[in-house]
Design brief:
Strand content: 15-25%
Structural class: alpha/beta
Distance between the termini: 14 Å
Radius of gyration: 17 Å
Number of helices: 9
Shape: globular
Number of strands: 6
Order of helices and strands: HEHHEHHEHEHHEHE
C-alpha cells in the first residue's frame, strides 16, 4: 500500500508538500517494516524528506525498546516522524522524550473550544511550550475557524491543519 501511495504522490503531490502516512500498531510490529519502506522509497523515487510517518501516542506508549530502534532506522532513511493525536492517548512523558520524533500533532479535540474556553487554551499552550522546549514542531489539527487560527498563532503554534486552511487532498487512483 505504501509503495502505491508513494508512486501516486511522486506524480501528483506538489514538491513543497509532504505526504503524511499513519502507521498502525500491526505495521510497527512487522519485522520487515524498515526494509519495506526503504524499498517503496527506492521504487517510487519519492524523496524521503517529503515523507512523514505518524504513530499515535497510545501506540508509542505501549511499545517496547524495539519501537525506538525501528523509528531510529526510519529516521535514518531521512523520513520525518510525528506523534499523532497528542494528548489523547496514554501519555507517558518519560517514554515520549526517548522517541526520535520531529513533530507532535495536537488532536482536534483540544482545538474545538480553544477560542472560548480558558482551560482548552491553557492545555494547548502547555502542549505547544512543551513541544517547542523539546525542539519539536507543533501542529494543531482540526482548525476550522478564524478564531481558532488566531489563538493558535498568538500561542506560537508552528503549523495548522484543518478545513479552514484546506480540505485533505486525495491522491488520484490512476
Amino acid at each position: 500500500v505504501l509503495r502505491r501511495a508513494l508512486k501516486l504522490a511522486h506524480a501528483a503531490l506538489p514538491v513543497h508538500q509532504r505526504l503524511c502516512v499513519n502507521l498502525s500498531a500491526l505495521q510497527l510490529d512487522r519485522l520487515t517494516l524498515v526494509e519495506d519502506v526503504r524499498r517503496a522509497l527506492a521504487e517510487s523515487k519519492f524523496d524521503p524528506i517529503r515523507l512523514e510517518l505518524e504513530i499515535t501516542e497510545s501506540v508509542a506508549a505501549s511499545k517496547d525498546d524495539r519501537l525506538i530502534t525501528v523509528l531510529n532506522s526510519l529516521r535514518d532513511l531521512g523520513i520525518g516522524l510525528a506523534l499523532d493525536d497528542f494528548g489523547t492517548g496514554y501519555s507517558a512523558l518519560a517514554h515520549m522524550q526517548r522517541l526520535p520524533i520531529d513533530r507532535i500533532k495536537i488532536d482536534r479535540s483540544f482545538i474545538v473550544e480553544i477560542a472560548g474556553n480558558q482551560k482548552s487554551r491553557a492545555m494547548v499552550e502547555a502542549m505547544i511550550r512543551m513541544g517547542q522546549a523539546l525542539n519539536l514542531k507543533v501542529l494543531a489539527e482540526g482548525v476550522e475557524t478564524a478564531a481558532q487560527r488566531d489563538v493558535l498563532c498568538a500561542l506560537g503554534c508552528d503549523e495548522l491543519q484543518g478545513y479552514l486552511l484546506g480540505r485533505p487532498a486525495e491522491l488520484p487512483t490512476n
